[in-house]
Specification:
The complex is a heterodimer.
Chain A lengths: L2 E4 L3 E4 L4 E5 L13 H9 L7 E7 L7 E7 L5 E6 L26
Antiparallel strand pairs in A: 1-2, 3-4, 4-5, 5-6
Chain B lengths: L21 E7 L3 H14 L4 E4 L15 E2 L6 H20 L11 E5 L2 H16 L5 E3 L1 H7 L15 E5 L3 E2 L2 H14 L3 E3 L4 E7 L2 E7 L2 E10 L5 H8 L6 E12 L7 E4 L4 E5 L4 E8 L11 H14 L8 E11 L6 E4 L5 E5 L5 H18 L13 H4 L14
Parallel strand pairs in B: 1-2, 1-11, 2-8, 4-13, 11-18
Antiparallel strand pairs in B: 3-7, 4-6, 5-6, 9-10, 10-11, 12-15, 12-16, 13-14, 14-15, 17-18
The chains are: A mainly beta, B alpha/beta.
């Protein structure tokens, strides 16, 4: 289980959160001007990165606020957590490099 | 059924050849779908100068990690057609491949726990019958008769209000299925190359002409991608995107038990699916982990949740022990239906998006994908499952229909 540091509430179990998929996908500025191909891209196509991936989470059973997370989709290490509206951090090294940020496979809290 | 009824562990069923400099076609992915595709390419289309490239060991990905449920009781016509064709192939393949992979038509039950479930289920039974798929609606007493260990009392949170039942559905021994296909492929001259990871593609303009691998460059006229959870990674190498999200899907087995579970029980609502393998393990699975992942493992609370569901439905399981849990990486699409067809790159074909239910589709995926690769046009059965449907809007929306739990 992931241990996620909510920007408002601090570290909480993954079960308190819901996943929102890829971050930074803006609603099209002129939806009526899009071709079917572009509309399909907006509706159905999302990055499926193997590695560092910017994604959204919401703290459903806490502050109920959305936030962004940069997470490695192979190791599941959480590399950064940042607020909605902030740009994806350009990381050389992880910002949240806390060993407690993720628990070993199969561990419970 | 006991362990001594299993066939003996085989010696070598296929060669381990070095890759040749060129092939007529290369299949990327040596799981069930890749092997079935190679088999039908050789058998139906006479293409024997082909190779299957597998980055790990043969059938060690989702083919080794699924819960082996085979059924065809899907709601929509397009799905019923392809999955029913798969089921008909499952029925003849043990003989055709000359390999008893223990296809056991013990039936699959999909439980209904709410009025909404009941209405959806009865509708689906009707749709199935119209499509020539065997289906019945069972009341709770009939459910109990077929599966006596199920708790149908009304003192649980979501009582069993009935079930759909497909008698011809069942399970098969997944690794034996892979070996059966691999042996026949090998006999037909197909090269199965393990530990061969694709690192890139050679293109001439927009046409694929070769595959770069950790065992060297292989020239080829056609490439078929059958890499499930890693399809997006391969597509990116080839220069296009797929509408796929990769998620971990976990499953587990108990220790061996006497035969107690005569059929397969699936519950979408409390969300668990359970059967008992030939050796005696209880095999269980449920839904994907919510986050994107390539790690072949998921979070423990997902296991905990499906165990709670299993124990409520089957009180007898309360004292069973979990022997092993694992995860595979499944390639999910927005409409919970697969993508089998052409790609934006010329002579490159995609078979992906089978998500949490690819095992049951193995023979039909192989048949239709082979047809698509050999002829350059889709088979009648996979025509609706094109990549274009996400642009045209002709989705095959099995979410909330029959594909919530596979």
């Amino acid at each position: 289980m992931l241990l996620i540091s909510c920007p408002n509430c601090g570290p909480r179990d993954e079960t308190e959160f819901h996943y929102g998929g890829q971050a930074h996908v803006a609603y099209p500025e002129n939806p009526d001007a899009l071709t079917d191909r572009q509309w399909a891209e907006y509706l159905f196509y999302r990055d499926n990165t193997k590695g560092a991936f910017a994604e959204r989470w919401v703290h459903s059973t806490g502050c109920r606020q959305w936030f962004n997370m940069l997470r490695d989709t192979v190791s599941y290490d959480i590399q950064a957590i940042y607020r909605m509206g902030e740009p994806r951090p350009d990381l050389e090294r992880p910002v949240v490099n806390n060993p407690a940020a993720t628990t070993p496979e199969g561990a419970t809290k | 059924m006991s362990a001594d009824q299993l066939p003996e562990h085989p010696d070598f069923l296929w060669r381990n050849p070095e890759p040749k400099a060129s092939y007529d076609a290369v299949i990327v992915g040596g799981g069930g779908h890749g092997l079935a595709t190679a088999y039908f390419l050789a058998k139906n289309h006479g293409m024997t100068n082909i190779a299957v490239l597998e980055k790990g060991w043969l059938a060690g990905g989702n083919m080794a990690r699924n819960t082996t449920i085979i059924r065809s009781n899907y709601l929509w016509d397009e799905s019923a057609a392809i999955y029913e064709h798969a089921l008909k192939l499952w029925e003849i393949l043990p003989e055709e491949l000359e390999y008893d992979f223990l296809f056991s038509q013990r039936g699959v039950m999909n439980l209904a726990h709410t009025l909404g479930d009941v209405r959806e289920s009865v509708r689906r039974v009707g749709a199935n019958k119209l499509n020539g798929v065997d289906a019945e609606w069972l009341d709770p007493q009939q459910v109990k008769e077929l599966c006596p260990i199920l708790n149908i009392s009304d003192n649980i949170r979501y009582p069993v209000m009935g079930a759909t039942y497909q008698p011809r559905a069942g399970i098969a021994k997944h690794d034996h299925v892979a070996w059966a296909f691999a042996r026949k492929c090998d006999e037909l001259g197909v090269d199965i190359i393990q530990n061969c990871e694709v690192t890139g593609f050679l293109k001439d303009g927009n046409r694929v002409v070769g595959v770069k691998t950790n065992q060297g460059t292989i020239h080829t006229e056609k490439v078929g991608l059958a890499a499930a959870g890693h399809s997006s990674v391969l597509a990116e190498m080839a220069g296009f995107r797929l509408p796929i999200q990769s998620h971990p899907l976990q499953a587990l087995v108990s220790e061996l038990h006497e035969p107690v579970h005569p059929t397969v029980v699936m519950s979408n609502h409390v969300h668990v699916y359970v059967s008992q393998a030939h050796k005696g393990e209880l095999v269980m699975g449920a839904g994907v982990d919510s986050y994107n992942g390539y790690g072949q493992r998921g979070s423990f609370h997902v296991i905990e949740h499906q165990m709670a569901a299993a124990v409520e439905l089957f009180p007898i399981f309360a004292r069973a022990h979990v022997l092993r849990t694992w995860g595979g990486i499944v390639d999910t699409t927005m409409d919970a239906s697969p993508i089998v067809g052409l790609s934006p790159v010329e002579n490159m074909f995609v078979n992906c998006g089978w998500g949490t239910g690819g095992f049951k589709g193995t023979p039909a995926a192989g048949l239709t994908f082979a047809h698509t690769i050999a002829t350059g046009t889709p088979h009648e059965l996979n025509k609706p499952f094109s990549l274009e449907r996400f642009e045209t809007g002709a989705l095959i929306d099995e979410h909330g229909a029959a594909a919530v739990a596979h």
